[in-house]
């Protein structure tokens, strides 16, 4: 958003030729107002194209803001439209409410464009709270907040998660280089393996999830919880990545006896 506002302001200043502090502030202010109109129009166009009606204007503005956000090179608005279309097809085949499903698909990432100073929590939780705040049905809000399994999911939440993964994983969707991708996976596994008691480590879902298998004789249940928290902190401190990374610590005890 800030880059787009800067681009509009710079183009207008260069075209006008009058570049001084007072004029810069005036042009930037006009660019911000123009962007407010533009993001509203983008949100309204996306909803109209999907056949979604009666959505609160504030939600449409948040959807429009996704146009100016990317994840691994994939445009946020195009991704959310794809998710809405995919979940619409799946819900239709399953005999579910297509309108509820598509609304959830369109809104599933709006939490990503809200600053942490406004709402606290992961983007899924924030998105669900915003959907409730602006009058969306509970089924839509629940699907949005549960599509990363941070709260108990519903059938619509499962479908949003599936559609989200399909859109992100399709060939050509994301422009991330192989070198960057491999490096992130290696860093995740390096951090996890540096902790005592870790037996195996697997970076999954393009580096958005890491699963750690620990030695049950060295790590008890309470220590496994602490380990997950410590690994999460190290990842936040040492790595740069879009979105979030899910850290899962697995501890299994097997009792085996042979009857002879």
Keywords:
58% helix; GMP Synthetase, Chain A, domain 3; 260 residues; globular; 10 helices; single chain; Hypothetical protein af1432; 3-stranded mixed beta sheet; mainly alpha; two-stranded antiparallel ribbon
Report on the architecture of this protein:
- The protein is mostly helical.
- The chain has 2 domains: 2-169, Hypothetical protein af1432; 178-250, K homology (KH) domain (GMP Synthetase, Chain A, domain 3), CATH 3.30.300.20.
- The chain contains 10 helices and 5 strands, in the order αααββααααααββαβ.
- The protein has helices at 2-16, 21-49, 57-65, 76-93, 98-107, 123-133, 138-146, 155-169, 178-193, 221-238, and strands spanning 70-71, 74-75, 198-204, 209-214, 246-250.
- Strands 3-4-5 form a 3-stranded mixed β-sheet. The protein has a two-stranded antiparallel sheet with strand order 1-2.
- α6 runs antiparallel to α7 (138-146).
- It is globular.
- The model has no long low-confidence stretch (mean pLDDT 87).
